[in-house]
Amino acid sequence: MSLDIEASKRAAAKEAVANHFPENPRFVGIGSGTTIVYVVQAIKESGRDLSRIGFVPTGYQSKQLIINAGLLPIEFDALPDGAMIDIAFDGADEVDDELNCIKGGGACLYQEKLVAMRANVFICVADYRKLQSRLLTKWPTIPIEVEPKAARQVMARLRLMGSCSAAGVGPFIREGVITKAGPIKTDQDFFIVDAPFPQPLLTSADLLEGKTQDPHKGIWEY
Ligand SMILES: O=C[C@H](O)[C@H](O)[C@H](O)COP(=O)(O)O
């Protein structure tokens, strides 16, 4: 029987907030996606005094989520010099045994990285489907946010690194499906390049053990 996905996201969010929300944080990062909605809900329901905490968004959706929850948003570039974000919560599309994550399924990446890198603690909140021992087990590509003028060059480099699907195509610039013709733009007006690689992707422990990945066959060789 498959678990209810929304219930699973809600449960993960509740656990994450109950176990990790600090005593008196000054700044808390709020990621993007559907799971983070439950994190904000759990923060609201935690019964804490949230009035003196600045919540740092990772994009438009994240900022609206903070505002709609009645929390205080503070833009990343308004953080005082030298101040760290106490903790950042965010979702992921896939997480491997070494806690490497695929992110960007919802076309948010760049600001998520800014916030995560400025955070003392990063908590990834993910439902049971996301945890796979190797990346690219269920999620098909690595999303990369790219400045449009650099896209062709980045894709050429990705191809040299072995990015292509089993059918020998890719990487791809992500396009709108129904409501947008041509490439979608991120909150920074950048493109998302979706890069397929041989599946699944080796971890650094695999590489240390001497396993190699043939980028052209998409299979593991030992
Ligand atoms: O681009 C979107 C972000 O990286 C999300 O955090 C990620 O896609 C996970 O989203 P969701 O919680 O909706 O699965």
TrEMBL record:
GO biological process: D-ribose metabolic process; pentose-phosphate shunt, non-oxidative branch
Enzyme class, spelled out: isomerase
Pathway(s) it belongs to: Carbohydrate degradation; pentose phosphate pathway; D-ribose 5-phosphate from D-ribulose 5-phosphate (non-oxidative stage): step 1/1
CDD domains attached to this UniProt entry: RPI_A
The keyword Coiled coil appears for this protein: no
One Pfam family linked to the record: Rib_5-P_isom_A
SUPFAM superfamilies cross-referenced by the UniProt entry: D-ribose-5-phosphate isomerase (RpiA), lid domain, NagB/RpiA/CoA transferase-like
GO CC, alphabetical: cytoplasm
GO molecular function annotations of the record: ribose-5-phosphate isomerase activity
Catalytic activity: aldehydo-D-ribose 5-phosphate = D-ribulose 5-phosphate
Bilayer-spanning residue ranges: none
EC number: 5.3.1.6
The keyword Coiled coil belongs to this UniProt entry's keyword annotation: no
Keyword annotations: Isomerase
InterPro entries: NagB/RpiA_transferase-like (IPR037171), Ribose5P_isomerase_type_A (IPR004788)
Gene3D superfamilies associated with the record: 3.30.70.260, 3.40.50.1360
Family label: Belongs to the ribose 5-phosphate isomerase family.
NCBIfam families named in the record: rpiA (TIGR00021)
Record protein name field: Ribose-5-phosphate isomerase
Organism: Lithohypha guttulata
Encoding gene per record: RKI1
